[in-house]
Amino acid sequence: MTVGGQAWWLTPVTLALWEAKVGGTPEVRSSRPLLPLPQLRGTLYNTGRHVSFLPAPRPVVNVSGGPLLYSHRLSELRLLFGARDGAGSEHQINHQGFSAEVQLIHFNQELYGNFSAASRSPNGLAILSLFVNVAGSSNPFLSRLLNRDTITRISYKNDAYFLQDLSLELLFPESFGFITYQGSLSTPPCSETVTWILIDRALNITSLQMHSLRLLSQNPPSQIFQSLSGNGRPLQPLAHRALRGNRDPRHPERRCRGPNYRLHVDGAPHGR
Ligand SMILES: *[C@@H]1O[C@H](CO)[C@@H](O)[C@H](O)[C@H]1NC(C)=O
Ligand SMILES: *[C@@H]1O[C@H](CO)[C@@H](O)[C@H](O)[C@H]1NC(C)=O
Ligand SMILES: *[C@@H]1O[C@H](CO)[C@@H](O)[C@H](O)[C@H]1NC(C)=O
Predict the structure, then answer these.
(1) What is the pTM of this model?
(2) Between these two residues, 180 and 232, which has the higher pLDDT value?
(3) Is there a contact between 142 and 167 (Cβ–Cβ < 8 Å)?
(4) Spans of biased composition, class Basic and acidic residues (predicted)?
(5) How far apart are alpha carbons 100 and 171 in whole angstroms?
(6) How many other CB atoms are there within 10 angstroms of residue 77's CB atom?
(7) Rounded CA gap, 264 and 246, in Å?
(8) Does 266 sit in the ligand 3 pocket, CB within 6 Å?
(9) Which mutation among 112, 116, 125 tests ligand 1's pocket best, with the greatest number of atoms within 8 A of CB?
């Protein structure tokens, strides 16, 4: 592994679980977030690079705990996916890719007034990543976004569709661990201000839903169809960044000992 000075904070990386430092790290155990979160509404949007869901300013959903020193507010849900199954996620685990990756992008609401100020500043952003496989079942939250009636509204670049009554807690697995590292935004300006938290249980969507994603175009309807798939940033060297997690790969059935170290996803209908 090379230590490239510039590569220090770049995202994404391939994460080898055996590299995670397990001795003496806090336990990072989590279960489905405190129920219920307020129901979200917002805009599903084809940016020409990926599928984006931009929640309305209210209600506020925030994440805290785990490796985070501050409460971070959700500002975007982003969905990246590949042209074929098993590829398309930005991160890899043990050199294995996934068909898609859902990124919940948050900014530090305690220190900064908005996303753009936070993205340029220390401890600015926190991104929770969930990996997605193609299988016979489907995650109920993703099903709301990917049902035919909804996803076909954003077939082309800049198409947007308003959604409401979304239950974000349904996105999360019943229980999960996570891996965390310090990295960057994977899209310009690639700011190196992100605490990444990768959830270690994959979600499922059906092959039909995956297919409907690949039918989205990077271009407006007046231009040639070019699939939105495969838009993740190429892998970056991990260098000597510390990974932390709660899995000891030599004993995957065992959880690390230590004080509880929980991740909280929380919300308030009338937030600040
Ligand atoms: C974001 O916050 C910065 C610093 O507080 C401020 O200068 C800027 O105008 C804000 N931007 C928006 C879009 O509100
Ligand atoms: C995803 O699909 C796999 C294979 O069918 C299954 O074993 C697993 O339990 C599913 N995961 C969830 C969260 O439903
Ligand atoms: C989340 O944000 C809301 C509104 O700012 C606040 O009332 C609540 O305490 C926050 N929760 C956490 C866990 O930070």
Answers:
(1) 0.82
(2) 180
(3) no
(4) 263-272
(5) 14
(6) 24
(7) 16
(8) yes
(9) 116
